[in-house]
């Protein structure tokens, strides 16, 4: 109800509407306020050039803007702020709601042509113009003046009920002494209750449980809803409005239909249109209600953001203080280290100077003593005695003098400290210390519609969240081993799509991705589970084949241009699961010995398959076959091949065995056991043979996983 209050206030006076009238632009204004903002137009303007909405024109018969020059900004008739600015006698004012309004001008008496206005002692000048204070549209009043505008009885009733609901607190109707303030009203009982009386007299059980309890203010409004008033026509005051003109979109009376301009217009019953427009308004309110609900949720989100901003601000401030304190601590530690270095230099200089002072003091004392002794000797008058010691004294004097030679009287240490603190780079760094708009990236979002698996390859695509503005330098894609093991990195780079090849068939992989930048590594995305193909599809691989091999049929058919055996591998390796593929003999001349089987990637390509220790094969002619590995021939079996024959290869990693079939029949016992690692399908042939590969085949019906019996046959 409090939110509705602004809808019930006049944009001019700022108070609740009193006798509101409806302007042609659908805005409302108090009748008294409408009189106050009337402006007289020049006499040259015809009052018939524009009519009020009561005349029934659907487009409100607004003034011809160019002709009347009332709205032209060029001649200052209607300014960009929504009012007349050309008339110096019409100063602009603002209403309590902040809307610009214009009080009436005071024209000269000889220019006034006054019309009496019902209910007013003040006559209204002819050719008066009124401007809507909200949308700033203007029009000239006709002879009826403000009486030509319909009264908004609905708005008047809503204002009256609203003011009554705010008048005083409602009291409980069942309290015997000193009624308490009511807290609810029952719409069915039409009684106001306080909380104790509601619990005692209106318990929520039985038939009363279906009653609707509303707040007292809402109950008061519904209780005091005014009865429906019958409106009269603005042009025919004695006629009630009973029909609705569809073209003019306004209620009309029968006299308007018979005598007025609505006679040729389409009209409908007023009650039917009332119900129709109520339904349309209710339907429009549903959409507006949804927007209001979204706005409330958005406001809650914004309020939560305020709290988060405050919390993050405190946390960030503490982090900043901690970082600056850490810098200050580091600077203080370095200061202590530098001071220690200065103290060491200081002590060293003092020690050197003091040692030199001590040394010079001793030598000076010795020299002074020698000089005094020599002077006393010179005073002696005994020539023979003097000559006995003079040579020795002369030598001592010269030797002592030489000891005071060059450098003896030079300081060994300067008093200056040859240390200069280079603080310029640090000061520059401190001045450049600033915030960097970079945080750890948010978790990427996997684009499920673009993620897929094909054969034993998986393609993953991802992107950053839409609202994320944090710089991303790259991404890290991780997959597990397809058997529930730990994750491992399979891609690091800047791309947002990656295809991982060489996965295990019929395996379930978990994948996830995270972003990183200079600030660190972000959170992982949601984990995506992918299933590789249960059955393998592959072709022969030209890249790894011997140069003499000839390919055709999209690398599914091979032959050779040499009489020597040459090896070709499939383009897919197997290391897990059970796999089966077949090869049909398209050409078989001169009884050659093609070999079929599996091999490592580094198998010899210029000898028969099985000659080295990197291949496990069965070679067969037109009568019999042998198994061969590392040039060891075993298990000769009768039954050969001809043109059109089919050779099948069954590789079972669950049991580590290899089985061969010829024309859908198992050829010999289990060929090889204990197979582990990665193996490629392989074949060796010469120019007398051509075969075609068939993949994506189901496991033969005769084979079921199980233990191998002692005879080597499959059970």
Description of the molecule:
The protein has 715 residues and is α+β, with helices and mostly antiparallel strands. The strands form ten sheets. The chain has a seven-stranded antiparallel beta sheet with strand order 25-26-37-28-33-34-35, with no helix packed on it. Strands 27-36-29-30-31-32 form a six-stranded antiparallel beta sheet, with no helix packed on it. Strand 1 and strand 2 form a beta hairpin. The C terminus is likely disordered. Helix 7 packs antiparallel against helix 8. It folds into six domains: 85 residues, 2-Layer Sandwich (Herpes Virus-1), CATH 3.30.40; 45 residues, Double Stranded RNA Binding Domain; 26 residues, no CATH class; 129 residues, no CATH class; 87 residues, Immunoglobulins (Immunoglobulin-like); 146 residues, SPRY domain (Jelly Rolls, Sandwich). It is flat, with a radius of gyration of 54 Å. The protein is 25% helix and 22% strand. It is built from nine helices and 37 strands.
């Amino acid at each position: 109800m409090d939110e509705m209050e602004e809808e019930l206030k006049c944009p001019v006076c700022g108070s609740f509407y009193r006798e509101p009238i409806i302007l042609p632009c659908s805005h409302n204004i108090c009748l008294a306020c409408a009189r106050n903002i009337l402006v007289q137009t020049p006499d040259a303007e015809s009052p018939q050039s524009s009519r009020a909405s009561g005349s029934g024109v659907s487009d409100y018969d607004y003034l011809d803007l160019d002709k009347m020059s009332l709205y032209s900004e060029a001649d200052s008739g209607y300014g960009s702020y929504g009012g007349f600015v050309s008339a110096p006698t019409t100063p602009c004012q603002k209403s309590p709601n902040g809307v610009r309004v214009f009080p009436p001008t005071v024209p000269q008496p000889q220019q006034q042509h006054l019309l009496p206005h019902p209910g007013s002692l003040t006559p209204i000048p002819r050719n008066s113009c009124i401007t809507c204070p909200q949308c700033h549209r203007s029009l000239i009043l006709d002879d009826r003046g403000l009486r030509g505008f319909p009264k908004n009885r609905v708005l008047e009733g809503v204002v009256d009920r609203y003011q009554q609901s705010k008048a005083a607190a409602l009291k409980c109707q069942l309290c015997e002494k000193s009624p308490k303030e009511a807290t609810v009203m029952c719409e069915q009982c039409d009684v106001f209750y306080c909380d104790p009386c509601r619990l005692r007299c209106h318990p929520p059980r039985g038939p009363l449980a279906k009653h609707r309890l509303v707040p007292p203010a809402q109950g008061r409004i519904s209780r005091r809803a005014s009865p429906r008033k019958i409106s009269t026509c603005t042009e025919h005051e004695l006629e009630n409005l009973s029909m609705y003109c569809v073209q003019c979109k306004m209620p009309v009376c029968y006299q308007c239909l018979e005598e007025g301009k609505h006679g040729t217009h389409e009209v409908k019953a007023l009650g039917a249109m009332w119900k129709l427009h109520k339904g349309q308004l209710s339907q429009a309110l549903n959409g507006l209600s949804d927007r209001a609900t979204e706005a409330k949720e958005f406001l809650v989100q914004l309020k939560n953001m305020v709290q988060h901003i405050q919390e993050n601000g405190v946390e960030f401030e503490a982090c900043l203080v901690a970082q600056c304190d850490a810098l200050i601590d580091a600077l203080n530690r370095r200061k202590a280290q530098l001071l220690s270095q200065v103290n060491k230099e200081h002590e060293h200089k003092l020690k050197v100077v003091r040692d030199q002072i001590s040394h010079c003091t001793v030598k000076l004392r010795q020299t002074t003593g020698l000089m005094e002794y020599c002077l006393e000797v010179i005073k002696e008058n005994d020539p023979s005695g003097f000559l006995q010691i003079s040579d020795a004294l002369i030598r001592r004097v010269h030797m002592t003098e030489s000891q005071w030679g060059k450098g003896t009287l030079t300081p060994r240490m300067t008093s200056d400290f040859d240390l200069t603190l280079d603080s310029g780079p640090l000061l520059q760094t401190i001045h450049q210390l600033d915030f960097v708009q970079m945080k750890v990236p948010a978790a990427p979002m996997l684009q499920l519609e673009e993620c897929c698996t094909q054969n034993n390859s998986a393609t993953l695509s991802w992107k950053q969240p839409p609202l994320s503005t944090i710089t991303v330098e790259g991404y890290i894609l991780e997959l597990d081993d397809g058997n529930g093991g730990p994750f491992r990195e399979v891609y690091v780079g800047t791309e947002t799509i990656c295809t991982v090849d060489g996965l295990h068939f019929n395996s379930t992989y978990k994948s996830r991705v995270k972003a990183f930048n200079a600030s660190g590594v972000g959170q992982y995305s949601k984990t995506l589970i992918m299933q590789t193909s249960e059955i393998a599809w592959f072709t022969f691989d030209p890249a790894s084949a011997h140069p003499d091999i000839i390919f055709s049929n999209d690398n599914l058919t091979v032959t050779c241009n040499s009489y020597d055996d040459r090896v070709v591998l499939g383009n897919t390796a197997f290391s897990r699961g059970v796999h089966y593929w077949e090869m049909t003999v398209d050409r078989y001349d001169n009884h050659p010995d093609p070999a079929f089987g599996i091999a490592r990637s580094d198998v010899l390509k210029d000898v028969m398959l099985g000659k080295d220790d990197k291949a496990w094969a069965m070679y067969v002619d037109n009568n019999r076959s042998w198994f061969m590995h590392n040039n060891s021939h075993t298990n000769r079996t009768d039954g050969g091949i001809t043109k059109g024959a089919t050779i099948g290869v069954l590789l079972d990693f669950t049991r580590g065995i290899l089985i061969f079939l010829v024309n859908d029949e198992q050829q010999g016992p289990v060929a090889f056991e204990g197979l582990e690692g990665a193996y490629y399908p392989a074949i060796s042939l010469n120019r007398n043979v051509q075969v075609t590969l068939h993949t994506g085949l189901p496991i033969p019906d005769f084979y079921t996983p199980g233990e191998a019996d002692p005879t080597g046959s499959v059970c």
